[in-house]
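This part of the workshop introduces the protein records we will be handling. To make this concrete, we reproduce a full record directly below:
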Amino acid sequence: MIRTPCKILLILATLLFTSVSWASDLPTVRLGALEYGTVNWELDTIRNNKLDEKHGFTLEVVPMGGGSASDIAFLGGEIDVMVSDVIWAAAQRAEGRDVKFIPYSTAVGGIMVKVDSGISALKDLADKRIGIAGGPLDKSWLILQAYAKQEGNIDLKADAKQEYGAPPIMFKAAMSGDIDAVINFWHFQAKAKAAGLNEIISVQDAAESLGLDPSIPLLGYIVKGDMAAELAQGLFAASRDAKAILGSDDGAFDAIRKRMNAKNDAQFEALKAGFRAGIPGSATVDEKAVDKTLQLMAELGGPDLVGKATTLPKDLFISLDQ
């Protein structure tokens, strides 16, 4: 039997309506993210490939104006998920808040300097100006201070001058020479490398020298403990699927290139490589390794950084059912 064009159109319309209706019946996960944050690369990939629908939910990304805005929105119930680090999550759980952590990234930066700066080692930073994104309690800054002391090179806090500022400002100051060295978030470090700046020590190498495991996921999705288990599992699975795509398919990065804000091909390739380097190798978190890092952060940053979380609280991590 030959179907008429009208019948074919009716069948297609029915299928489309059924698909849209099914998607609208899925529970919505409201995830707060900085508008220009790198997590949007993964979130766009999830939505571009309908990985949220595949795993039983609809992802709604809520733009956030800053880290404190995300904290307020999350703790106030305006969003279901936020992105933060494992130290913050541990501190919240130690305060009695029922939060859980889904691993997202291991990416960290390092200390970058201009090629003609005359700085090739930590000891050369004496009396120099170090720009630090993230403030005095930035985890990378604390780790690098501890490493420098351990190696007997320099007391970075006492012997060098610190300037704190937003990541884009610190990046521009490093490029212009207004500061002598910079410790920045990983994507600005990637852009600095693409522009020809040298890394004299990475945070990963410093952490490893301190006996820490540099492969632990410091960044993650923070969810409420009372989120339905299938939803938390769905978000975790969608994140892993998106990472698998971004880790192997260059075309997936072409689809989000505008979002990446790469000024040229060198930046684009550096950002791509940096993101891939930060993909956790396993969905399972080594809790002993995280606890060791947390205890060092407690020693270096005190209660202002870790709150009451001097050791890793129980049941912080969500495990992905295989």
The chain has two domains: 23-106+216-306, 110-209. The domain at 23-106+216-306 is CATH 3.40.190.10 (D-Maltodextrin-Binding Protein; domain 2). Residues 12-22 have pLDDT under 50 and may be disordered. The beta strands are 28-34, 58-64, 81-85, 99-105, 110-113, 129-133, 161-165, 181-183, 198-202, 219-224.
